[in-house]
């Protein structure tokens, strides 16, 4: 079965619909396209009524629009039997897109050379620990200038002009301006008027000037300026690609603007999205999918394990909510934004496995998708867990990646022999077995480092490498139940399909009384009205939520009554406006009276030093309620799972898989 078309058979009961709660959804019965752009592969998930189609394209970092449209063309061929991009786009209601490019750019420090102009605070205020110093050195370095906040108009104009010229001569191609103290907004606005005259933005070569209060409202000066710096660093490259993609989509007369999925779990059109909010948005897509799974199946505590080529992204859904930091961290630096608490461990399907001081070392370095694992035959010579699974028999060269990617067991053996077997004086098979033991233990340790494993913890295993040896990982972590979503290999893309269009607005309270609450709420409602109008919606059609941010605490609001607040805390009001749009949904249940799963044959797999012929079950061939005991192998187009002795699986009518012991 073709890898791109298989999912419409397997996930036949997924639907595009809106939740019952909240505002009524935007009208429409067309397709939903969800795209998750990763560093190695870009995943596509198209929801068309009761069917879900999926495919993948190789990420092209030199031109992201290439893999974007390549994947859309492949998806159209899966749906219509031949490539018809125009028909696909004309029949689509919403396209949601997430990307890790911002995350990767920050990790690699590949972006803009930033300059920083400060007044009322010092660069030292942004470098209070080793992590802040390291990131500051990578983004800003010595390109810093300061202004006297007490200077009069004439003196400020001269000093600011000299400072901008100095930063430009030092190589800054984008400058962030941050004022501190009570007059931060007024001070930045005053300087903006001066600099608009001295450095008109319409002139060729004009350096973009960004003002911190326009990026985010936050009483904490250092945190606000850091947020503005991250946004300035990420903005240009993302802007070029996204607007180019949207322009090309408009040529196909798409119904609605391209929506960008953010780390806070919501989406928005490009012109209403701050680049910094896309940081780690791909993993948040997986977390949103896990949240939907937890709600649908009643999991109290669902630990997400999204294993890709380079990293394992770990998240947690507890009591129906994704674990979130109100003041999230980027590269270890606190920002003003709420961000999903996702930890990326340096272990994945393409992680390099070597021997150091007589012991096996897993990652964090990765061969990525190019050259990739040695078995890909693209020039890679280093050993990875993918090579080990091939040597151990878990992977079938004929069916790997839906048969679209040919893998070479001899190349895998050569890489393992040179990099692991010889240094440890082991056979290739014994070395591969030791590699899988070390790999599973590192993933399990990462799960335990992230959170305490409790008896009610269920593991959600997804991503291309998530299901591989999920049973072994779960045992090492002390977990007894696993769910593998039917769309595991593209689950982050599927997960962003649960997002609505939403924005948050924040402003400090001018006074701690009913009048202050009312004035601030009216201010935020007006900002929300303008913001949602720019999205194409009336505020009356949106769901409105308000609360108070008191220091690091969120306090619920009851009308105009001021709740008890921590003494001395900075207090701000937060208002969230949400427009519900058509989105994905889940169906299917476990525990129904089922029957024995139908084996498609056997596969010779080595584990624990012993080779055995294990029953092979193909997911797409199973009826709802199909069950079987391990040891066995469960496989579909884009993932393979070894189910160990003591474990059993059940596949429901939606294609989701529950493993238990």
TrEMBL record:
InterPro entries, per the entry: Hydant_A_N, Hydantoinase_A, Oxoprolinase-like
Superkingdom of the organism of origin: Bacteria
Segments forming domain Hydantoinase/oxoprolinase N-terminal: 33-139
Compositional bias ranges of the Basic and acidic residues kind: 7-17
Annotated spans, Disordered: 1-27
Gene Ontology terms, MF aspect: 5-oxoprolinase (ATP-hydrolyzing) activity
Pfam families named in the record: Hydant_A_N, Hydantoinase_A
GO cellular component, one term: cytosol
Ranges where the Hydantoinase A/oxoprolinase domain occurs: 224-504
A GO biological-process term: glutathione metabolic process
Bias kind Low complexity: ranges: 18-27
Protein name per UniProt: Hydantoinase
Species of origin: Solimonas fluminis
